C-alpha cells in the first residue's frame, strides 16, 4: 500500500461523497477476514491502516492470563511482564504479525472494498433522489417488458410496473413516453428498486392536481376516489371556497380539464360528484347519473344502507355489470343495497307483515 491509496480515498470523498473514515473502517474489517483466510489463522487479530502514510499493520491480540491454554489467543503474565512491568491479568497485548507479502493481498482487498462502497454510495444517491418521488407522478420511457414487468426508464434508473399496475388494454412499447405514479421506493441488497403504477388512485389525484390549479392549491379538495382503471372512476370533491363550484372547476370549460385526464388514461370515464357531509346526500350523489328517491340506513349495521330509485332507473343505478353501484359503494365506504321503488314497497309490506305476525303470536 502506498500514498496512492490515500490520494484515491481523497478523490472518492470529494467526487462520490464517501467519507474516508467509512472506507478505512470497512477496509480494516475486510483485511482481518483476508488475513485469516489466506494465512489460516484463527487468532484474534486487528488491522490498522495509517491514513496518512498508507501503511497497513496486522496485530495479534492476546489476553494476559496466569496459565496459557491457547497460545494464539493468550499470553502468560510472566511473558507480559517481560514486555512491560505495567501489564496485569486480563489486559490485552497487541503483537505485530504483518506478513511480508500482505501488501498484495491488501491491495486486492482494498480494490474490492472501494468498488463495493462506490456501488453502495451510487445506490444511496439514487435512493435519495427517487425516494422523494414516492407518491408522485413522473414521466418515463418504456425500455422493455417481460412476463412480470414493464420497465420504465426514469433517466438513469429503471422503475418496474407489475401487471396489476398496468391498465387493461394499454400497450406499452419500447420508447413510449408514459406518466407513472411511484408507489414505493425500496433500498435493498440489490440496490434501489422503484415500483410504478398506472392503476393506483394516487395517479388520478396527481393528474387532477396537474390540470386543476384549484385542486393543487387546496381550494378544491379531492375527498375520495374509486377507480376501475382503464374503464371508469368516481371522484368526490368539495370546495373550501363558497364562491367556487368544485365539480364545475374540475370538469372545466366545455369539459376541457377532465378531458385532458381522460385522454391521458386512454378513455377512462370520469364521474365527478360533490362530496356531502350528510351521508344520504353523499350516497345519492355517488350513484349519479341515476336519480335517488330515498336512502334508508340500518341501525344494526352503520355501514349498510338501502337506496331506493325509480323503477325505470334501476339498471342505470346498478350500471353495466354492477359497476356504478360497486364504484359508488367504494367511494362512500358503504354497503349499498339498491332497490326499485316497486321492490322497495313490496319489501316494506313484507316487513310490516312479519312484524304483525310476531305481534299476534305474542
UniProtKB/TrEMBL annotation:
Q: Record's Gene Ontology CC terms?
A: cytosol
Q: Pfam families annotated for this entry? A: KH_NusA_1st (PF13184), KH_NusA_2nd (PF26594), NusA_N (PF08529), S1 (PF00575)
The record's subcellular location field reads:
Cytoplasm
| Predominant subcellular localization, coarse grouping | cytoplasm
Q: Which UniProt keywords apply?
A: Cytoplasm, Elongation factor, Protein biosynthesis, RNA-binding, Transcription, Transcription antitermination, Transcription regulation, Transcription termination
Chain ranges of the S1 motif domain:
133-199
Q: Which domain of life is it from?
A: Bacteria
Q: Which GO terms describe its molecular function?
A: DNA-binding transcription factor activity; RNA binding; translation elongation factor activity
**What are the start and end residues of every segment in region (Disordered)?**
342-362
Q: What does this protein do?
A: Participates in both transcription termination and antitermination.
- Which named protein is this? Transcription termination/antitermination protein NusA
Q: Which organism is it from?
A: Pediococcus pentosaceus (strain ATCC 25745 / CCUG 21536 / LMG 10740 / 183-1w)
Amino acid at each position: 500500500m502506498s500514498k496512492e491509496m490515500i490520494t484515491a480515498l481523497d478523490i472518492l470523498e470529494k467526487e462520490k461523497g464517501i467519507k474516508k473514515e467509512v472506507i478505512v473502517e470497512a477496509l480494516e474489517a475486510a483485511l482481518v477476514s483476508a488475513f485469516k483466510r489466506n494465512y489460516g489463522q484463527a487468532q484474534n487479530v486487528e488491522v490498522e491502516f495509517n491514513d496518512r502514510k498508507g501503511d497497513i499493520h496486522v496485530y495479534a491480540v492476546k489476553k494476559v492470563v496466569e496459565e496459557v491454554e491457547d497460545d494464539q489467543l493468550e499470553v502468560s503474565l510472566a511473558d507480559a511482564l517481560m514486555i512491560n512491568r505495567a501489564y496485569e491479568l486480563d489486559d490485552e497485548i497487541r503483537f505485530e504479525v504483518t506478513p511480508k507479502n500482505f501488501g498484495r493481498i491488501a491491495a486486492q482487498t482494498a480494490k474490492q472494498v472501494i468498488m463495493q462502497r462506490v456501488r453502495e454510495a451510487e445506490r444511496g444517491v439514487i435512493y435519495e433522489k427517487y425516494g422523494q418521488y414516492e407518491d408522485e407522478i413522473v414521466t418515463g420511457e418504456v425500455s422493455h417488458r417481460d412476463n412480470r414487468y414493464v420497465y420504465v426508464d426514469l433517466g438513469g434508473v429503471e422503475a418496474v410496473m407489475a401487471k396489476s399496475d398496468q391498465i387493461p388494454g394499454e400497450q406499452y412499447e419500447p420508447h413510449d413516453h408514459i406518466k407513472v405514479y411511484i408507489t414505493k421506493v425500496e433500498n435493498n441488497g440489490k440496490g434501489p428498486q422503484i415500483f410504478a403504477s398506472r392503476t393506483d388512485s394516487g395517479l388520478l389525484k396527481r393528474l387532477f392536481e396537474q390540470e386543476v390549479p384549484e385542486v393543487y392549491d387546496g381550494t378544491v379538495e379531492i375527498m375520495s376516489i374509486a377507480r376501475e382503471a382503464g374503464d371508469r372512476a368516481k371522484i368526490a370533491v368539495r370546495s373550501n371556497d363558497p364562491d367556487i363550484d368544485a365539480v364545475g372547476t374540475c370538469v372545466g370549460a366545455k369539459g376541457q380539464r377532465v378531458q385532458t385526464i381522460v385522454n391521458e388514461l386512454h378513455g377512462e370515464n370520469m364521474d365527478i360528484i360533490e362530496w356531502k357531509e350528510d351521508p344520504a346526500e353523499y350516497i345519492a350523489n355517488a350513484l349519479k347519473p341515476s336519480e335517488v328517491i330515498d336512502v334508508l340506513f340500518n341501525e344494526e349495521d352503520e355501514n349498510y344502507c338501502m337506496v331506493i330509485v325509480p323503477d325505470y332507473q334501476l339498471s342505470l343505478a346498478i350500471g353495466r355489470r354492477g359497476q356504478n353501484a360497486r364504484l359508488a359503494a367504494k367511494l362512500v365506504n358503504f354497503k349499498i343495497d339498491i332497490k326499485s321503488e316497486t321492490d322497495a314497497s313490496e319489501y316494506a309490506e313484507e316487513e310490516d307483515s312479519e312484524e304483525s305476525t310476531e305481534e299476534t303470536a305474542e
